[in-house]
Design brief:
The protein is about 30% helix and about 35% strand. It is of the alpha+beta class.
């Protein structure tokens, strides 16, 4: 009996001595996994919407970008103000392929591939980058802590796969 107990203790000691601790994944690894999930979904037509609402001055904006055949083809921008508890559009524009990117306001018209590349660059150049993903693994947010001038940060409110905007 003592022999079996000694062998069992020896096996446990040897087994734990050689076990490698599991390291948490880096942000770059998480982003790469998300991008691989996105690529495996095979969507080349979709609409994503970004936006910011500032409660302190009751103003905000929302931009929707339509992508077809993996190319941004349409952008819709809306500036909104909270009037009596209801958000109302006070200014808007729609850009189609010929005028895409002419307006300064709103999120830049990019594809998800572009957004993944931008996020990777941010991760490699800055510390304290926050990543968030939708339940299906698609990138939802990639940003650093900042004030209300973070227009280049990414925060997607929704993605509609297989959809397009009317432009």
């Amino acid at each position: 009996m003592k022999t079996y107990l000694a062998l069992a203790l020896l096996a446990v000691a040897c087994g734990t001595k050689n076990d490698k601790k599991t390291q948490p994944k880096s942000s770059l690894e998480l982003l790469a996994e998300s991008e691989a999930s996105w690529q495996s979904m095979g969507h080349d037509s979709y609409v994503y919407t970004t936006g910011i609402a500032y409660e302190f001055d009751k103003k905000g904006w929302e931009t929707s970008v339509s992508v077809e055949s993996n190319k941004a083809v349409c952008r819709k921008f809306q500036h909104k103000e909270n009037m009596g508890g209801t958000w109302k559009t006070t200014d808007e524009y729609i850009e189609s392929a010929g005028s895409l990117g002419l307006h300064d306001q709103g999120f830049k018209p990019k594809t998800m591939d572009d957004l993944y590349a931008d996020c990777e660059s941010l991760l490699k150049s800055r510390t304290g980058v926050t990543l968030n993903f939708f339940d299906n693994g698609i990138l939802k947010a990639c940003y650093t802590s900042c004030d209300n001038t973070c227009y280049d940060s990414l925060s997607i409110k929704e993605i509609k796969l297989g959809s397009k905007l009317d432009c």
